[in-house]
């Protein structure tokens, strides 16, 4: 069955029953069915992972500029701003992917590839000579693995948060 046939069947089943609570749950379930295939979800998530990697790596030049090319320590507010962005960017990406009904497995697989994007992008940034004093360095596994797991966890956490809020909001609107 196609996605449309499955959704139509669920809605017809919900319309034909006398149990309003079950009908409301069935309509919500039909509305939350994924629309894409697993490879399409993985491709979407890979694009999101690249976008998150580019955005997070954009914080490196920002920190470079804030610290005067490493000549001074960033102020407390500057450090707080950079840290907040490192946490919020993957969380928001997860919420956007959940709103688009991406499957968590494809998202997790795609976001576990972020070290590859980091290596490629830091090398390009180092080769381009855009920042004085910048050299591309090889990423150490002891630093990369926790960062990758943290970003993947924050993204999946954003997906879960969106789904919890969406489900709670639907129950508030339709208490039956």
Task: Describe this protein's structure.
It is a single chain. The chain is built from seven helices and no strands. The protein is an all-alpha fold. Helix 3 (38-66) packs antiparallel against helix 4, helix 3 (38-66) crosses helix 5 and helix 5 (104-111) packs antiparallel against helix 7 (141-173). It has helices spanning 3-16, 20-31, 38-66, 76-99, 104-111, 114-128, 141-173.
Q: Give the number of helices.
A: 7
Span between N and C termini?
A: 30 Å
Return the structural class: mainly alpha
How many strands in all? 0
- Shape descriptor: elongated
Estimated share of beta-strand residues: under 5%
Low-confidence stretches: none
Mean pLDDT: 76
Question: What does the largest sheet look like?
Answer: none
- Give me the Rg, rounded: 21 Å
SSE run: HHHHHHH
Fraction of helical residues: over 70%
Mind sketching the topology for me?
Elements: H1 3-16, H2 20-31, H3 38-66, H4 76-99, H5 104-111, H6 114-128, H7 141-173
Helix pairs in contact: 1-2, 3-4, 3-5, 3-6, 4-7, 5-7
Tag the structure with descriptive keywords.
176 residues; 7 helices; elongated
